[in-house]
Amino acid sequence: MTKRAAVMVDVSANQKEAPTSDETTRKGTFSYLGCLNSSVQMIDDVVLNIAAGFLSTADMIYVTLYELAKNPEFQDAAYKEIRQIEEEDGIINVHNIQKVLFLRHLWYEVLRVYPPIPFSTRKVDHPTHIHGHSIPAPHYLMYFKLAVGHNENIFSNPEKVDPERYKGFRRQDVLKMFGPFGFGPRNCIGQKLAELITIVFLVSVVKQFKFGLPEQNFLDMEALVGLIPSAKVLSVEERK
Ligand code: HEM
After folding, report:
1. I need a labelling partner for 114 at 20 to 30 A (CA). Which of 38, 47, 57, 66 fits?
2. Is residue 81 over pLDDT 60?
3. How far is the CA of 10 from the centre of ligand 1 (A)?
């Protein structure tokens, strides 16, 4: 059985612990909350994961549109790149979508500045040393990616949304910088789907519409379990 398949079948194992850092299978994705012991709950678990994944994806698309609206030069750069790819290849589809870099890098910036899941947790099940720190076992660790993404020792001018900072970097190296999808065997199984949905959607709307912010509107983020945009503030205009 593959690791990816395990999430669908092993949730009935009723594992009551948070995932450990070196777990090799995806046992009981949410069952460590201690609430899974039937097939109905198993389905509930899978649906909850997927629903949560799509909610994060939708929120991050919204925030990316907000950044496009706030920065008309981003819209121009994204539109120009789309037109250039279409001139070269005729159409943007599954074979050349990797060429869409500006919107992809803008989305990475949105994930860095406004991570919808701002932390990940792991159980340390054996004594561990990380960068000179000794961590006894058992112990629970929280990795706070919101803080990492805003750390000026890691990112210059961290509050600035700047898609250019990822120019020349490979996808896997960018995602390692701040871990929006977590790390290791328990990382997000939906990350590539989320990226594909986002880029396909953004290409299609940026081609047709221009986004604006009426009355200098400002997007506030609410911190619930994750970070979500608190209000819908955009205006939309069809491209002529
Ligand atoms: C922008 C969109 C998304 C973000 C930022 C995101 C982020 C994350 C993060 C941070 C984790 C925890 C990883 C860890 O602790 O190392 C996670 C887990 C997970 N995500 Fe996503 N996710 C997104 C979209 C999706 C989508 C679209 C799906 C499903 C189609 C999905 C399915 C899952 C599942 C099933 C897990 C649990 C994996 C496990 O515990 O083995 N996610 N996600």
Report:
1. 47
2. yes
3. 17
- The count of structural domains within the chain is 1
Average pLDDT over residues 5-23: 40
CB 106 within 8 A of CB 79: no
According to DSSP, the β-strands at 227-229 and 235-238 are unpaired
Domain with 136, as residue range(s), is 3-238
Buried b (16+ CB within 10 A) or exposed e, 109-141: bbbbbbbbbbebebbbeeebeeeeeeeeeeeee
Atom of ligand 1 nearest to the CA of 121: 15
What single letter denotes the amino acid at residue 13? A
Q: Whose CA is nearest to atom 43 of ligand 1?
A: 188
Residues with CB under 6 A from ligand 1: 7, 26, 29, 49-50, 53-54, 56-57, 60, 116-117, 120, 180-183, 186-190, 193-194
Please tell me which residue, 40 or 145, carries the higher pLDDT value.
145
The pLDDT score that the predictor gives to residue 180 is 95
